[in-house]
Amino acid sequence: MYIRTQFQRIVRFPRMLLWAFFMEGVETKRMVHVYVRHGAGKLLLLSKNKQPSAEELLRAKEQLRDIPRFLPFFIIIVVPAPGITEGYALLAITLERWLGQRISLLPSQFKKVFQAEKKTE
User: What would the DSSP string read from start to end of 59-86?
Assistant: First the structure.
């Protein structure tokens, strides 16, 4: 039973990483739309009711901070070398746990994947 559970976790992990990549793309696209609306509002091209709210701007700012964290994953995926993505993720998780809140290397969607994995253990 334990081997089956571990096998299922191993099989599911690449799908979860792919989903995290997809969701990072969705969040980045939303961020760009929020900043475009914000810029258009500053240029008086949009009415006040179409401008982004303070909450939308805050989420966009958080996503903007995720972009430098996402770039290493993107580069590693583009370069075809098996196991590098998992190794980078393991290194990032280890550094974040070791250094606490002082450093954040993982994008938000990837943190969700790895926190879900941690909870299932």
Answer: HHHHHHHHHHHHHHHHHHHHS--TTHHH
Q: How far is CA 12 from CA 18, 51, 55, 70, 101, in A?
A: 10, 40, 33, 21, 28
Q: State pLDDT tens for residues 32-87.
A: 999 998 988 778 776 777 889 999 999 999 999 888 888 777 776 666 666 676 77
- Residue linked to tokens 């976790």: 9
CA distance 76 to 19: 16
| Closest-CA residue to 20 (of 117, 115, 110) | 110
**Taking a C-beta distance cutoff of 8 angstroms, is the pair 61, 103 a contact?**
no
CA distance 67 to 50: 26
Report helix, strand or coil for 102.
helix
